[in-house]
Amino acid sequence: MMQKSKWRSWILFYSFLTLGSAFSTVWALQLLQLGSRGEPVREVQSYLYELKYLSIAPTGYYGKVTEEAVKRFQAEHGLKVDGKIGPVTLQTLKTAIQEKPKMIAHIVAPGETLADIAAKYRISPAELMAANSLSEEEVAVGQQLQIAVSRENAPVASRGRLGEIQAVPWEIVQRLWGRGEIVRIIDLRTGRAFQVRRHGGHYHSDAEPLTARDTQVMLSIYGGRWSWTRRPVVVQIRNQYIAASINGMPHGGQTIKDNNFNGHFCVHFLGSRLHKNGRVDPDHQEKIQMAAAFNLPLSELAERAEPLENRRPNAE
Q1: Which CATH class is domain 102-149?
Q2: Which of 37, 79, 83, 218 is the most exposed place for a label (fewest CB within 10 A)?
Q3: What's the DSSP call for residue 131?
């Protein structure tokens, strides 16, 4: 009798294991999308919440907020941006959780530069500047810097030294490019460059050509006619060259009255969204990836865009 009871217990235990494994397999293969409900949705939301893509606590319901959080995650991780959780997005989420960076302190040693420190930790100079609210590339001996280091020392954004094109998430760019600050935009198809000033923008940057001459250059890039067409560009923020996408249609408000540009235009970066609906624009993101992959010698890039003086509102 004892023997039969023991066998029964083992059979029950094995059955539970089999059912649990089957449940996990079904969940892994399940497609989660707008309108989905249940524990798998809650699990995905917990990942998004921990990674700061979702600002509300998990509910178990896959609504618009969750869909947009998924789109931002997909855009920043080079995945197909459809707002749905399939096997690839799920695995990428789990990997991101495992490799979530931790913050460490680095004390600047004699002879170290910002580029040296960024290379040491395999992060981009742009990320290092944004994480420490630096407006210049200068660092001082003994200065303490906060560094985000993942398990493999390789965070999400593409890496680059000063002077190389980088794909940098919008949440970082908006801390590097302040409102009212002047930067240079380089069109990668024509090589033409013009200066702009950031007008505002929350989900992406709204910018205005700085002068009538800059408006003329921008118009020539669009063949003499304003258009909503997206174009791959590089935005030069001091010595940082950041992959971006613009449209060429004046719209909305403006602060510069004598530049012959009636409004502002949009500048998108990795993971940025549209203001009208808060959604990621796949066309802009495609152009950003094209800009990030642009094969241009640094010497030629320097010729097209000479170093630009950092000019903020309080310095004008």
Answers
A1: alpha beta
A2: 37
A3: H
CB-count exposure of residue 303 (10 Å: 0-12, 13-18, 19+): exposed
Task: Determine how many CB atoms are found less than 10 A away from the CB of residue 235.
Answer: 27
Strands 265-268 and 205-209: antiparallel
Over the stretch 25-79, which tens digit does the pLDDT of each residue have?
444 557 999 999 999 999 999 999 988 888 888 999 999 999 988 988 887 777 8
How far from the centroid of its chain's Cα atoms is residue 40's Cα? 26
pLDDT tens readout for residues 277-316: 888 899 999 999 999 888 765 456 545 544 443 333 333 3
Residue 237 phi/psi, 5-degree rounding, is: -110, 100
Angle between helices 39-50 and 87-98 (to 10 degrees): 40
Q: Do 228 and 248 contact (CB within 8 A), yes or no?
A: yes
The answer to whether the pTM exceeds 0.90 is: no
Residue type, 167: A
Q: Rounded to the nearest 5 degrees, what angle is found at the Cα of 275, between the Cα atoms of 273 and 278?
A: 55
Domain 31-98 annotated CATH 3.30.1360.40: no
3-state secondary structure of 135: coil
Q: Minimal CA–CA distance to 206: which of 237, 181, 233, 238?
A: 181
**Sequence letter at residue 268:** H
How far does Cα 298 stand from its chain's mean position? Answer: 23
Cβ-contact 37, 55 below 8 angstroms: no
At 135, the amino acid letter reads: S
